[in-house]
Design brief:
CATH class of the largest domain: Alpha Beta
Number of helices: 7
CATH superfamily of the largest domain: Ribosomal protein L10, N-terminal RNA-binding domain
Helix content: 40-55%
Largest sheet: 5 strands, antiparallel
CATH topology of the largest domain: Alpha-Beta Plaits
Strand content: 15-25%
CATH architecture of the largest domain: 2-Layer Sandwich
Shape: elongated
Length: about 170
């Protein structure tokens, strides 16, 4: 790779990192070609982009992003590194966890999710349990609908009279 190609690659990677709210760094070394192809296929099917990166180029790309501090990630930039870009924060963790049912790797080095950095493979269970934005919105909508459902059911069960509604609500209280 020429100096100009490296510079262009760093610039493109830096732009991708800046635009991404979620990325994971993992060690996929020593996986067979068959296993690598399988994980790439799983990534593709789950809207996750998988790239193998050189640590020095990744560190330079991270340094170029002005508004964020990625210094916690520099300690994990040793050995082979793959980067997984995703839109859903827990998607790569779930994929890694599922893939490791049959393989020893990938090993989670670190993750960046919505301005928070998680370091180490021991974070995998926690990261896979994090709810996505869509799941959180669904939970909030469910909570907001709950009082309305109580009022509607009280109206139906009370026979439509004020006394009946009050009696039903009193019994539930």
């Amino acid at each position: 790779m020429t100096k100009e190609e490296k510079s262009q690659y760093i610039e493109e990677l830096s732009s991708k990192l800046a635009d991404s709210g979620v990325f994971y760094l993992a060690d996929t070394a020593e996986l067979t070609v068959e296993a690598i192809n399988a994980i790439r296929r799983k990534c593709y099917n789950n809207n996750i982009e998988l790239r193998v990166v050189k640590n020095t180029l990744l560190e330079k790309a991270l340094d170029r992003i002005e508004d964020r501090d990625y210094s916690e990630l520099y300690g994990v930039l040793a050995g082979p590194t793959s980067i997984m870009f995703a839109e859903v924060g827990n998607a790569p963790a779930k994929l890694i966890k599922d893939f490791r049912k049959k393989n020893d790797k990938p090993i989670l080095k670190a993750a960046y999710i919505d301005e928070t950095i998680y370091v180490g493979d021991e974070q995998l269970d926690f990261l896979s349990a994090i709810k996505s934005k869509e799941e959180l919105i669904g939970d909030i909508i469910g909570i907001l609908q709950s009082p309305a459902k109580n009022v509607v059911s009280a109206l139906k069960s009370g026979g439509g009279t004020i006394a009946g509604i009050l009696k039903t609500l009193e019994e539930r209280g």
